[in-house]
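Reviewer 2 asked us to include a model.

Predict the structure of this chain.
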Amino acid sequence: MNLPADNPPSPARILIVEDESRLARLLADYLEAAGYATHCLEDGREVAGWVKARKPDLVVLDLMLPGRDGLEICKEIRTFSLVPILMATARAEEIDRLLGLELGADDYLCKPYSPREVVARVKAILRRARPDSVMAEVAGPLQLDPDAFKVMAGDRSIELTAVEFQLFATLFQSPGRIFSRARLMDNIYADQRIVSDRTIDSHIKKLRRKLADILPGLELIHSVYGAGYRYEPVPREPGGPE
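Predicted model (structure tokens):
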């Protein structure tokens, strides 16, 4: 007996909020080529109502918009929706970046950027936001909450920065696999910025310190001399190679 074919899943819907129409159309073309459905808005005053009515899967939100500031829009959206928000800004000052994330943005892009970078960030954010993402996974004594950037061990938890979360999620989702520093840098810095190996080492050191707060005496992130790092879900006593 021939069974009816399953309906293919509908593409994720991306709302692009950008007042530069040529840039918006370029982003839409790249996202659609990657398999996403897109819609573009230019006026900041239209965004919250559109999101509430149509419930997109992700919003690419420019900071500087006619009618309303992107930070205000982000803050309002967070009063009724947890839709992932990727904020884009030409104002690269650290205060703008921090304020955007505090108001609920999931990630940010600094202009000028390449459309390929936007596609990479969108893929990463949607991967974290999937129902079957790391929130549903348990490896050893830990579980991750991708919405809050938290690692949990039972009823105890720690909060991670966005970069720390991406780094740890990469290791966590492939227990036992060795990741080189270069591969980890590619995963957490989609904009291909130039960072040194010591940057990854510094993040690993902070992660270990935070993990030790909820699992004292256990080592879960292991250094592999000359190769990189791996996550071992079965903890062992500290004292291995650093």
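Residues 13-129 form a domain with the Rossmann fold fold (CATH 3.40.50.2300). The chain has eight helices and eleven strands. We have added this to the supplementary material.
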